[in-house]
Structure formats: C-alpha cells, structure tokens
Write a structure and sequence with these properties.
Undecaprenyl pyrophosphate synthetase; six-stranded parallel β-sheet; about 40% helix; about 15% strand; binds 3-methylbut-3-enyl trihydrogen diphosphate; binds magnesium ion
C-alpha cells in the first residue's frame, strides 16, 4: 500500500464528477483464510460479507453502477468442495438479499453463462433480475463469466441474427453488459496485476487500480483511496 491509501476527505459525488461505474475483481479470499489457518471456504464467507459492505459504500458515495467478479469460467478448475461452497454462498445471497435489494432500489443483473448452474439458482437469478428491473441503481454480478466467452457469444448472436459487416457497436450491444456504460474504474484486490478475463472488451479505456489488500479486508477507506486515485488521473482516450 502506498501513499494513495490515506485520503483526507472522501469524495461523495462520484457520478457528478465522472465516476459512474466501478468494477471489482474481488481477489484474495483464499489467502485471507490461509493467513488465519482456516479453510478457503471461510475466506469466501468473509468475502461475501464484505461484498455487501463495499457495494453499499459505493452507492453511498454516489456511484450508480457497480460490477463484481464473483466466479470466472476458469474457477470450475477448483476443488469440488470450494466450488460447492461458492455456489452455496451465491444461493444464500439470492434468497437472503432479495428484500434488501428492493429496499435499496437496486437493479441486479447477472453477467455470464448460466447454463451450467443449477436450476434452483437459475430460477432465483431470474426472479431477482425481473423483480428489480425498474430499480435505479445497478449491481452487475459476474458469475460463470469470462470475457472471451462473452465476446464469442456476442458474435454468435450476431451470426444467428444474420448479420454481416459487424461493427464495434454491434459487439458492445450484444455483450452481457449491453444495459450499462463501460466501467470507468476497475479495482483489483489481492496484489495480482492482471484482469483474469474480466470485462476485457469493456475495460479498453478503464482506469485500473490494484490494491495489495485482500478482498475480505478491503475497507471504505480503501475505496476512498481508489476513488481519489481515479480523480487524480487524466483520461485522454487517445487525445493529445
Ligand atoms: C477470489 O478469491 C474469489 C474467487 C475467485 C471466487 P480467491 O479464492 O481467488 O483468493 P486467492 O487468490 O486464492 O487468495
Ligand atoms: C479472478 O480471480 C476471478 C474472480 C475474482 C472471481 P482468480 O483468483 O480466479 O484469478 P487468477 O487465477 O489469480 O488469475
Ligand atoms: Mg485468486
């Protein structure tokens, strides 16, 4: 952690100042558990609890859209125990957070290929999405999500529509994120400096922020630091 980590005044009007969408690669749950001599699954439990705290804080500081990377297309490689624990936590979120979602005026959208998920999860996901479709703040949850797979499914949809001469706009509008702008800021916790197949099309001009903090330990103060770093940068988008 560098000097970016201490911020005098938190910025609380993010959207008005140009930060409308923040995306998180929630990494470090396993190492958090290991540090404490706990099974990895308990790291995910702590991570899931912190996800609720952090997404709420982002909305408190005026960021209208948040995306989180919860499970990648590559995470199936993990042990059966770990994958089951992640799916169980996801199911708990879908049942326990429904009322809170409505109270908080949150629209939940799931990004990814849901085909391999259990039927009970799929039903709960559809229920959450359809009940919240008219809510104003946005939470995208990437589950069984992979950026390359997302681009491939977009191209296949365009082929099925009989399209030729594909434009960038066509791809963008056939991604799982067609309903929202690209992330202004992508934050990865857990000290790894890579995207791990997350929003690879959408992040072409996102600001990237890497934190050494493990996801379950991430605090609102760390978000303030990431946000302050974002506003200290000049986004040129190729201009001089
Ligand atoms: C991120 O934490 C959560 C998921 C990938 C589901 P990890 O489980 O990758 O934690 P580390 O990287 O092993 O510490
Ligand atoms: C990225 O973390 C996926 C999620 C946070 C869901 P990983 O821990 O799976 O990424 P790698 O394996 O370190 O690249
Ligand atoms: Mg990891």
């Amino acid at each position: 952690m560098g000097i970016e980590n201490k911020v005098a005044e938190p910025i609380t009007d993010c959207a008005a100042r140009g930060l409308r969408h923040i995306a998180f690669i929630m990494d470090g749950n396993g190492r958090w558990a290991k540090q404490r001599g706990l099974p990895r699954e308990l790291g995910h439990t702590a991570g899931a609890a912190n996800f609720k705290k952090i997404t709420r804080y982002c909305s408190d500081i005026g960021i209208p859209a948040v995306t989180v990377y919860a499970f990648s297309t590559e995470n199936w490689k993990r042990s059966k125990t770990e994958v089951s624990a992640l799916m169980r936590l996801f199911g708990e979120y879908l049942t326990n957070e429904f009322d809170e979602m409505m109270v908080n005026d949150l629209r939940v959208v799931f990004l990814g290929d849901r085909a391999p998920l259990s039927n009970s999860l799929k039903v709960l996901m559809e229920r959450m999405e359809s009940a919240s479709v008219n809510n104003s703040r946005l939470l995208n949850i990437a589950i069984n999500y992979g950026g390359r797979a997302e681009i491939v499914q977009a191209v296949n949809k365009l082929i099925a529509e009989g399209r030729t001469d594909i434009t960038e706009e066509d791809i963008t509008s056939h991604l799982y994120t067609a309903h929202c702008p690209p992330p202004d800021l992508v934050v990865r916790t857990g000290a790894e400096m890579r995207l791990s197949n997350f929003l690879i099309w959408q992040s072409a001009y996102s600001e990237l922020y890497f934190s050494d903090v493990l996801w379950p330990d991430l605090t609102p103060g760390d978000i303030d630091a990431a946000v302050a770093a974002f506003f200290s940068r000049e986004r040129r988008f190729g201009n001089a």
